[in-house]
Amino acid sequence: xxxxxxxxxxxxxxxxxxxxxxxxxLASGLVDRIGPQATLRLRDSAGFDLALPQGGVLTHAExxxxxxxxxxxxxxxxxxxxVGHRVxxxxxxxxxxxxxxxxxxxxxxxxxxxxxxxxxxNIAGIDAAMRAFPDALQVACFDTxxxxxxxxxxxxxxxxxxxxxxGVRRYGFHGLSYQSIAETLSAxxxxxxxxxxxxxxxxxxxxxxxxxxxxxxxxxxxxxDGLPMGTRPGxxxxxxxxxxLQQEGLTAAEVSDLLYRRSGLLGLSGLSPDMRxxxxxxxxxxxxxxxxxxxxxxxxIAALAADLGGIDGIVFTAGIGENSARIRAxxxxxxxxxxxxxxxxxxxxxxxVISAExxxxxxxxxxTDEEGVIAKSTRAALGMHPQGPSRG
Length: 392
Ligand code: ADP
Fold this sequence. Notes:
single chain, alpha/beta, eight-stranded mixed beta sheet, five-stranded mixed beta sheet, 39% helix, 22% strand, binds adenosine-5'-diphosphate
């Protein structure tokens, strides 16, 4: 089988997607909790479902090797011709999918200081794939690229200009997800011109789409800004951070840990970063946390509607957006003044269109497919580089 592999390497997980040469999904896999307790799960559309017993998988390279052994058993004579990588940060330079050679790889590494908790793992995934498939084309797909057309006002912080020139800017993230939604909208709802997309997962952000192009995003220089998330606070007065450093005596590393791992839904509830747990809990703290989450989402939807000069549709996607009828209902209930009218029955069934007849705004649920976007971009790059990446 001639195939394209997609890789999404996180701090302790590796997600794989296997696609045929027409970008139809063949299989997907997840190596979770990379370390002494790692687990692997592989499945395909025909129903094979392979869970490997826990074992020590200590590096991304070992995780990839382990997953490939499983895929080899299911797909004899598998020939991977290209590997598409999710890379969180493309900086000022990368505005689209890019074939990776040694120069590109070193530019991606130059961006580590902009995303120190994510970019190194993406690079580890690229290293592992280059070793496993030295002849395959490697393609980087950036989460920032989709937002590159933003205006100066949407890009700059009101800091001295020298910082802007150094790259201290608003970039926006979740771009592969927004591209997936924009493609689905263009195929199924081309009448919607001004759309706010709510990507509500462990990470959460909103994107304003005008005719399928990103106009603004709630995320900025890092993936900390905007909405509260599983363990990140979202928008916060920078003065709070000065207080943490100057009065509480936290080190920079402790502030980073606070912002990336201990805040958000987890910090507010004291219970869990997981929306399913919070919805089931029913405690005052959990209910207050859910209300905080939906309040901030409503507020930011209105802000992005202002960026668009009005709004024709709202799309919910990712783990919470696709699965939580309650969160969708509570967000929409506060947006009647904008013209949003939810159909509760359609919402409970997670239909594609969940707005009521006559709603001034169309409300939709669209599953995101970041892996599919990576596969298609990788196949397109393969068309331009049939012999693999240029060398030298
Ligand atoms: P990631 O950003 O890691 O890809 P996901 O998009 O999978 O995350 O979203 C994970 C979030 O989705 C978790 O908070 C999880 O609780 C939530 N979620 C998944 N299914 C449901 C559900 N049925 N009801 C409420 N929340 C859900």
